[in-house]
Amino acid sequence: MKAIWIGLCLLVTATWAAAHEVRPAIGDLQVVEGQVQLTITLNGEALGADVSLEGIDNTDALDASEDVDQLRALEPEALRAELEPKLPGFANRLEMTASGTPVPLIATVTSVDEVGNTDLPRDTVIELSGPLPDGSDTISLTWPAAYGALVLRQQGVEEPYTGYLEGGQNTGDIQLGGGDEASGWMTFATYIPVGFDHILPKGLDHILFVLGLFFLSTRMTPLLWQVSAFTLAHTITLAMAVLGIVSVSGSIVEPLIALSIVYVAVENIVSDKLHRWRPVIIFGFGLLHGLGFASVLGEFGLPDGQVIPALIGFNIGVELGQLTVIALAFILVWYAIRVDRGEADVAPAQGLYGVLTVVFVGLGFAMNTSGFQEMMGGSAMVFFWPLAAVSLLCAVSATLVEQLDAYRRYVAVPASAAIALVGAYWFVERVFL
What we know:
Layout (H helix, E strand, L loop, with lengths): L1 H15 L8 E8 L2 E8 L1 H5 L16 H8 L3 H8 L3 H7 L1 E4 L2 E2 L3 E7 L11 E8 L6 E5 L7 E5 L7 E4 L8 E2 L8 H16 L4 H11 L5 H23 L7 H21 L6 H24 L6 H34 L5 H21 L3 H7 L3 H20 L6 H27 L1
Parallel strand pairs: 1-8
Antiparallel strand pairs: 1-2, 2-6, 3-4, 3-7, 5-6, 7-10, 8-9
């Protein structure tokens, strides 16, 4: 039995331990002396490798991921040389019009960050410019699907436009003189899905931390105490970081977030009780996760004059994402918990979890297509095989229910061990690799 759950831990660890994050491009738009200027900060390696980022949040999901990795390792001038021949095509694919008249754009690379941790994205800045047709009072941009998502910010005007474009979307007409700033309610609604998306499917480290809280106990009270402490803490630091009150480097925050995952998972293995210190420690870890959430908002930027609605909307989206993770986990293990408590029969549980294991493994193979990867930002195996592993553990728990604490022994502990292994890998990766 030990060999089985050790193998499952290794399977889940290998499936979950993905890197090579993709961030949305950031565009700053303004008009200077009759010239439209669009400064875009983006993933230059993806542009250099001629890959499509549509629906992708991790370059490991790309067929040409090795090409992207090689470009990540290039020195700035070498990457610049790779990008120069691509710039005319890049500019031509951006459909910009001013009052309905096409604006021809010329692109130049203005900066490339130094090589750092090649598992993390680095910034390349491209400046595009073109003549503004006489008499124009509006401008619009269609952002190509192949370039992923774009956060577009208008500069130099009162009440500037700020928008989040999925690949292939158009901004609509933006008033050159300003006035297109979204209302508070519109901003609030816009940032809810941004927060949710940062948890599901993109926030794997936050997902694992929340699952670490979930697997401590089958009782609701410990979970409520932990989630409340975590929510309060990350709300505080998210607000403080966004408002500029506190700032901590991601090189410090990200390894500590990985350690927080290890801690909660390891404590699940050694104890199934909510000790007095655990909510306090989780509160401290929540402060770290709030700084991690703030880095996402920093990448997106917050619309001037609408910081509070954007912040509240993002935080609500994060909470909805976390509650969805907990709900899905509870639905999956609910019948195994009932069997462990003597409230349900063994045979139906064995059949249910046996079928779920086969179904999830099959879905991992059958749906591992480029379309799924583009839609979800990762391999289908990343989504379905951990579910298959937990389903198999639930089947084992139901089968060996006569043993004391079968659910904890065969589900909670192995799942926590897998989570701890992933967190430990991330810590090593973020500090040493």
